[in-house]
């Protein structure tokens, strides 16, 4: 029988789910049935959550687990009335921090998830617009780019750029290495002088062929041979030019993003 | 003097930073200087981290705070040698969970951050491509859309759609309400029959005028009067048709995203 887990939050539930997921993956082999309950921000909603938790218990016969980021102690108390195993994400850290800092925390609901910051929001939106305007080599000017991703067609450049923009507010451009570019013995003209901002994206030939086949089945473009040649040429280019390379085959967008930040020496935070 | 905080992780550091940020915002008024240290995944890197932590202490005269998601106890021990206030994000929850589940957790490094899941990755990439192909009303078919965002030009549709795609793997399309659409007494033809999947995006007229002025300064398009008229017409349309409305002026992309999921009755998790 699956063990039911609820990620309960007075806001979006993203923090509860992020940490909850990290904790649960340390118990491999246990079958979890996870549910997110966002915006549990008043007593009525907390009571409704309790009803749901109890009904999961009755249905499965197993005590549910609640991973809770509600800051308001009243809400946590109501949730505790469900009898579930309560894991309060913030509680263990408040005491030690209050002691260290010599101040009491503020118990404002929603505070934990940050007040809306218009400047940061705009930076993300601006960066996203930049990424769209500089996708696939569209706009030839890279003077404002924080980074330029290069790689063969369908190697994962666009989603990575959009992620860097939406999350970090970074101006991420990308340039597709065409077969013509790959026959040259040097960096394409537009990329020269940009080496510090260049990142190469690679992928396995088999995976690339699969992705390309969805776009143009049975084409030379999608053949494993063509993919293999393009990728080998691109890898040569990256090596020759000393460009950092990231492989999107077995790496999540988050990991690629963090690696790019680390290489750029940026400790910029999630916006 | 600022209190230095390090978010230390054996992987991307996103979990450490997410929870760390949530905890720190509960101590409003304290001036924190935060740094992310990702990929601290061996003893050498942990010792290098300790050097950095100690030098921050020497520089500021204040004991640094370390928010740590390293799963490997050996690494946590090395980090603890810095003398900083150590807040181990996972530790408080492992004991209660082991007791509840009757199994020991696996102490594999990197496990906490999830193994790479190719199927989920593909769903995100596919959804991102879908969002790009269905941006700004480009592709007229909405038959595969999970949701369709509608709103006047520059109300924030595109970044929201990209976020829904990248995070939740949802096929998010968007349709711009033109002044011509807004003069009609009914939903634009292409949107009829889609009501369950429609979400209206709104924004204040002042903010919209500001955003539009960046694109076309001193235009009728960017005038507050024109913005006010379009927004009022759009709000009328949303009300008349019973379409859920989200305001992007004071709401983060994350909150808008979570609200859309809740309205759609989707408990889909972060991918």
Structure description:
The structure is a homodimer of 271-residue chains. Chain A is an alpha/beta fold and 271 residues long. Chain A has 2 domains: 3-113, Rossmann fold (3-Layer(aba) Sandwich); 118-264, Rossmann fold (3-Layer(aba) Sandwich), CATH 3.40.50. Helices cover 45% and strands 15% of the residues of chain A. The first copy, chain A, is built from 10 helices and 8 strands. In chain A, the strands form 2 sheets. The first copy, chain A, has a 4-stranded parallel beta sheet with strand order 2-1-3-4, sandwiched between helices. Chain A has a 4-stranded parallel beta sheet with strand order 6-5-7-8, sandwiched between helices. Chain A is elongated and about 70 Å long. At the A-B interface, helix 1, strand 2, helix 4, helix 5 and helix 6 of A face helix 1, strand 2, helix 4, helix 5 and helix 6 of B. Chains A, B: Its EC number is 2.7.11.33, 2.7.4.28.
């Amino acid at each position: 029988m699956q063990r039911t887990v609820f990620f309960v939050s007075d806001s979006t539930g993203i923090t509860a789910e992020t940490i909850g997921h990290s904790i649960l993956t340390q118990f491999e082999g246990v079958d979890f049935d996870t549910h997110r309950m966002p915006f549990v921000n008043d007593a009525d909603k907390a009571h409704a959550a309790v009803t749901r938790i109890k009904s999961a218990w009755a249905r499965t016969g197993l005590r549910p687990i609640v991973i809770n980021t509600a800051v308001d102690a009243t809400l946590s108390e109501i949730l505790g009335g469900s009898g579930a195993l309560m894991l309060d994400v913030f509680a263990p850290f408040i005491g030690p921090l209050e002691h260290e800092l010599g101040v009491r925390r503020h118990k404002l609901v929603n505070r934990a998830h940050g007040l809306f910051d218009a400047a940061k929001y705009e930076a993300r939106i601006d960066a996203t617009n930049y990424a769209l305007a500089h996708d696939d080599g569209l706009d030839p000017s890279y003077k404002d780019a924080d980074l330029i991703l290069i790689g063969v067609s369908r190697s994962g450049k666009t989603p990575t750029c959009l992620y860097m923009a939406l999350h970090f507010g970074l101006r991420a451009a990308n340039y597709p290495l065409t077969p013509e570019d790959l026959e040259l013995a040097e960096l394409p003209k537009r990329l020269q002088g940009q080496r510090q901002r260049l990142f190469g994206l690679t992928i396995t030939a088999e995976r690339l062929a699969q992705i390309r086949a969805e776009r143009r089945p049975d084409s030379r473009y999608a053949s494993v041979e063509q993919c293999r040649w393009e990728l080998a040429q691109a890898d040569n280019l990256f090596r020759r030019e000393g460009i950092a390379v990231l492989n999107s085959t077995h790496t999540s967008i988050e990991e690629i993003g963090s690696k790019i930040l680390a290489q750029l020496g940026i400790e910029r935070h999630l916006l």
